[in-house]
Write a structure and sequence with these properties.
With about 625 residues, the protein is an alpha+beta fold. The protein is built from twelve helices and 31 strands. The strands form seven sheets. Strands 1, 2, 18, 19, 21, 22, 23 and 24 form an eight-stranded mixed sheet that branches. Strands 3-4-5-6-7-9-8 form a seven-stranded mixed β-barrel. The radius of gyration is 25 Å and the shape is globular.
Length: about 625
C-alpha cells in the first residue's frame, strides 16, 4: 500500500529526536489529474462492435445470460484496444431507457476479458452509468468528492460515448469495486468481497419486475442459501465469513468490532445522512454498498451508486411535501418491525457509537457542505461537459433542467416525477440538521496537538474525558484507549490548565498510529476530525524516501482565542493583514475582513457554531468557533 503522510511538527527532543509526528492522508491514494478519472476534461470513448446487431444481442444477454460479453474494439485518448469484453449493466437505469427503445443504457467494459493484462489508462474495467435520472450529470461526481474524504470511495468523472460511430450520449465513468480498487485502498486484494444489493430486477423481457432480498445484515438462519437473494459474492469464497458477521450482529454484538470496521460504517452513514442520500442502508432502501474483509478479518463498508445523493430521483411525489426528504430522520431505524437493520440499531443504541456517529455528521456538515464551493465545482464540471450534454439526444432531460436542477427541484410532466435540486437540498438539509436537538449541542473543542520528549499534549475545552486512541497494527485497526490527564502528573506540566497530556506508548520502536477522542455528556470530538480514516503517526522516518513524506514544518499555527467566545475573539499567531472569513454552520458568509491585530467584534452574532477560514500565503485553513 502507498502511505503518503504530511509532517505536522518537529517538536521532539532528547532521546526522541529521531521521531516525528505525522498525519496519514488517504486522499493521496486517489488518482492525480491526467488519469482515467481526471475531472477537468471530458474525453471521448468510441466502441466498435464486430456485429452491427450488438444492441439486440446485449439486450437479450442482459435478460437471459447477464454475464455474457461480446467483443469490441475501443478507442480512447489516442489509444485503440482490441477484443474488449462488453456487456450492459444496471437495473432501473437499464430498464427505463430500454422500455422507451432508447439505446442509452449503462455499459460494463472489461479490457482483459480476452487479452490478459490489457488495460485502459492502467484500469482493467470501465463502468459507464447513463445518468438517466440526473439532469445535471453532477450528483454522483459531487457526492464522490464528499464521500472520499471519509472512507474509500470509487472515483468518478464524465465520458462522451460513441457506439458504432454514433454519439450515444454523456456518461458517468465510475471506478469498479474490484481487485484493483482493493489493492489501491487496502494494500491487498485477496479478501472476501460482497456486493450488497438484492437480486430483484426492475424489469424482465416482458417488462415485469421481480422481488429480491434485502442486504440488511439481518439474521436469516444458518443456511447460506437464505442469503443468496440479498448479497452477490464477488470473491472465490466468503459465505461462511459473511454469515459469521451476521450471526455476531444478532447474538454477540459486543464482539462486532472484531468483524467489521464500525467507524467506517458510521462514516458511511453520516455522509448518507448529511448529503440526503436516501438510496442507502440508513435511508429509504437498503442497498448500494460493498463489504470487503481485510487481512485482519474485519469487513469494510464501501459506498456505491451515488446518483440519488442530494435527494435525486428519490424525491418523486415528495416534490409536493419536500420535507419528507429534507427532514428525513438522521436516526431512522426502518419502516416497520419487518425492516430490521441491525447495524443502525447497534449504532443508535450504543451511547459511544451514537456520539461518534453524530460527531461524524458534524464534521461532514462543517467541511463539505459549503454551497458556494459545491456550486463552483458543479459549474466547472458543467462548463466542460455542456456541449456533450446539449448534443445528447438520447438523454431524458432538457438543457434547462441541466442548469436549473443544480439550484432547485423540479417536477417533470413528461416523467410525472419530482427531482430534487442539489443546492436547494443542501440548504434545506443543513438548516434541518443544524437545529436538530441531538446535533445542535456543544461539542468538546480540541486545540493543537504536540509531542515533546515523548509526551503527547493537547488543549481541550468542554471535555469530560480525553483519550489517546492508539494502535501498532499495520492497517490502523483495533485502537486501544489511554486516558489523558490534566492533573500535573504523567508528563502534564500544570494541573487544570486545559492542556491534557500522556506519555506516548513505547512499543519497542514500532510506529504508533493514533488519534484523540474527547467526550462530554452530550457529544464527541476527534483529532484529526476525520479519524479513523485519517490518523496521526508517531514514529521513526529513517529509510522512508520521497514521495512518502514531505514536511510542512514552517506552517503558521494560528488559533482562535478565546474559544468559546461571547463578545469578541482574536486570531493568535496569525500574520497581520491576513484575509479571514466567518461562515455560519450552513456555509453562508457572515464576515469577510483582514486581520488587523485587534479583537473581532461578534457581539451581534447569534449563539451557535461558526467556521473561521483564514487564507494564509500557502494554505487555506479552517477552524471551528463557538459563540455563547
Amino acid at each position: 500500500m502507498r502511505y503518503f503522510i504530511t509532517s505536522l511538527a518537529f517538536l521532539l527532543t532528547g532521546s526522541f529526536s529521531s521521531q516525528v509526528l505525522t498525519l496519514f492522508d488517504p486522499q493521496t491514494l486517489y488518482d492525480e489529474d491526467g488519469g482515467l478519472f481526471d475531472p477537468t476534461v471530458v474525453r471521448e470513448l468510441h466502441i466498435n462492435f464486430e456485429n452491427d446487431d450488438y444492441h439486440n444481442i446485449l439486450t437479450e444477454g442482459f435478460f437471459n445470460t447477464p454475464s455474457m460479453r461480446i467483443p469490441a474494439s475501443i478507442t480512447f485518448n489516442g489509444a485503440t484496444l482490441d477484443s474488449v469484453g462488453v456487456r450492459y449493466k444496471g437495473n432501473s437505469t437499464f430498464c427505463l431507457p430500454t422500455q422507451q427503445n432508447n439505446v442509452k443504457v449503462p455499459y460494463n467494459l472489461d479490457m482483459n476479458y480476452w487479452i490478459s493484462g490489457q488495460k485502459l489508462m492502467d484500469y482493467n474495467k470501465v463502468k459507464l452509468a447513463n445518468a438517466w435520472l440526473d439532469p445535471t450529470y453532477c450528483k454522483e461526481y459531487i457526492a464522490s468528492r464528499i464521500y472520499r474524504k471519509y472512507l474509500p470511495t470509487p472515483e468518478i468523472n464524465l465520458i462522451a460515448l460513441h457506439s458504432q460511430g454514433n454519439y450515444t450520449g454523456l456518461y458517468v465513468n465510475t471506478e469498479s469495486i474490484n481487485k484493483q480498487f482493493l489493492e489501491k485502498h487496502f494494500g491487498e486484494d485477496e479478501g472476501v468481497l460482497f456486493k450488497c444489493d438484492g437480486a430483484g430486477v426492475f424489469c424482465d423481457e416482458n417488462g415485469n419486475g421481480t422481488e429480491g432480498g434485502t442486504p440488511s445484515l439481518a439474521h436469516l438462519g444458518s443456511d447460506s442459501t437464505s442469503y443468496y437473494d440479498s448479497y452477490t459474492i464477488k470473491s472465490e469464497h466468503g459465505w461462511e465469513e459473511l454469515m459469521n458477521l451476521i450471526s455476531t450482529l444478532e447474538f454477540t454484538p459486543e464482539n462486532i468490532e472484531d468483524l467489521i470496521n464500525m467507524d467506517r460504517v458510521m462514516w458511511a452513514m453520516a455522509v448518507n445522512t448529511v448529503t440526503n442520500n436516501l438510496d442507502t442502508y440508513n435511508g429509504y432502501y437498503v442497498h448500494n454498498y460493498y463489504l470487503y474483509q481485510d487481512v485482519e478479518g474485519r469487513f469494510q463498508m464501501i459506498p456505491w451508486d451515488l446518483d440519488n445523493t442530494f435527494g435525486g430521483a428519490i424525491m418523486g411525489f415528495s416534490f409536493f411535501s419536500p420535507n419528507d426528504i429534507y427532514h428525513f430522520d438522521p436516526f431512522f431505524g426502518g419502516w416497520d418491525n419487518s425492516d430490521y437493520r441491525p447495524l443502525i440499531d447497534l449504532i443508535y443504541n450504543t451511547p459511544m457509537y451514537r456520539k461518534q456517529y453524530i460527531a461524524h455528521i458534524k464534521t461532514v456538515m462543517e467541511e463539505s457542505m459549503n454551497q458556494d464551493e459545491i456550486a463552483q465545482e458543479i459549474s466547472s464540471l458543467q462548463d466542460i461537459a455542456s456541449s456533450y450534454a446539449s448534443n445528447d439526444s438520447n438523454g431524458l432531460f432538457s438543457m434547462e433542467n441541466y442548469t436549473s436542477n443544480v439550484q432547485e427541484a423540479f417536477w417533470s410532466t413528461g416523467f410525472n416525477w419530482g427531482f430534487a435540486g442539489i443546492l436547494s437540498t443542501i440548504e434545506e438539509r443543513m438548516a434541518f440538521l443544524s437545529s436538530h436537538a441531538e446535533i445542535d449541542v456543544p461539542s468538546p473543542i480540541l486545540g493543537n496537538l504536540s509531542i515533546v520528549n515523548g509526551v503527547a499534549h493537547i488543549t481541550a475545552y468542554d471535555a469530560d474525558e480525553i483519550q489517546l486512541r492508539w494502535t501498532t497494527n499495520s492497517i490502523a485497526s483495533n485502537f486501544q484507549s489511554t486516558v489523558m490527564v490534566d492533573d500535573g502528573t504523567q508528563g502534564d506540566e500544570f494541573a487544570s490548565d486545559g492542556v491534557f497530556s500522556i506519555p506516548m506508548p513505547n512499543e519497542d520502536g514500532a510506529d504508533i498510529k493514533f488519534y484523540i477522542r474527547a467526550t462530554n455528556s452530550e457529544a464527541m470530538s476527534l483529532s484529526p476530525a476525520r479519524a479513523e480514516y485519517e490518523y496521526y503517526i508517531y514514529g521513526n522516518t529513517s529509510g522512508v524516501s520521497d514521495p512518502y513524506f514531505y514536511t510542512t514544518t514552517n506552517e503558521v499555527v494560528w488559533e482562535i482565542a478565546p474559544n468559546p467566545a461571547s463578545n469578541s475573539f482574536a486570531l493568535t499567531n496569525c500574520p497581520l493583514n491576513t484575509n479571514f472569513t466567518i461562515l455560519d454552520f450552513q456555509g453562508r458568509e457572515i464576515l469577510n475582513d483582514l486581520w488587523a491585530g485587534h479583537p473581532i467584534d461578534i457581539s451581534e452574532f447569534s449563539t451557535g457554531v461558526y467556521l473561521v477560514k483564514v487564507n494564509l500565503p500557502t494554505v487555506q485553513s479552517t477552524k471551528k468557533l463557538v459563540i455563547r
